[in-house]
User: What shape does this take?
Amino acid sequence: MKRITSIVELYGIERTFGSGENKISILKGIDLSIDRGEFVALMGPSGSGKSTLLNILGCLDRPSRGTLRLFSRDISSVSEDELAEIRRLKLGFIFQSFNLIGRISVLKNVEMPMVLSGMPRDERRKRALDLLETLGMAHRIDFSPQSISGGERQRVAIARSLANDPEIIIADEPTGNLDTKNSLEVINILSDLNRGGKTIIMVTHNPETTKNCSRVIKLRDGRIMEGAS
Assistant: This one.
């Protein structure tokens, strides 16, 4: 008997905005499964629906129609509080614009998800320090995000995404604001995390960033292109 390894399952996912004559259909029946331990890239031109799909996968938005199952659980049946808990404990997010809090230190940025999950102070500080050291940012712990480079900010953002040891990392154009050297470093970090067992779902427009991905899924006009899934 085949062992079920899918950590993400989508069936007939549609997403529309507006109503009547103003109704816009962004996703048009997405069927997709992602196995535990995959490194999946979502690609497509502007307006193809890849960011909308990523928002649904990250429980930041709900589909208008269809079924999303995460960790063998139908997400349509969970409350907003339960969705928040899934995002906090099961998913780690990396954004193109870093989304770090400028008024607090690098260390406190990495600690923040653990604060929200109720981790004791000493425990979360030790984990934040360990993550920053692993990512080569131990020398920046007391700096503010505004005073470090873009590549360093993304390393901090990656450390923050790992704070609660998530099962899935959701990366939205993680190299979009970086030069070639820093882009390569970020992709290498994500590849190392994937080899360590993390499932990674990444939106990207750059084919160079997909070389270490296990699968590239191409979207166009709200649909997965034939043969891309």
Observations:
- The chain is about 30% helix and 25% strand.
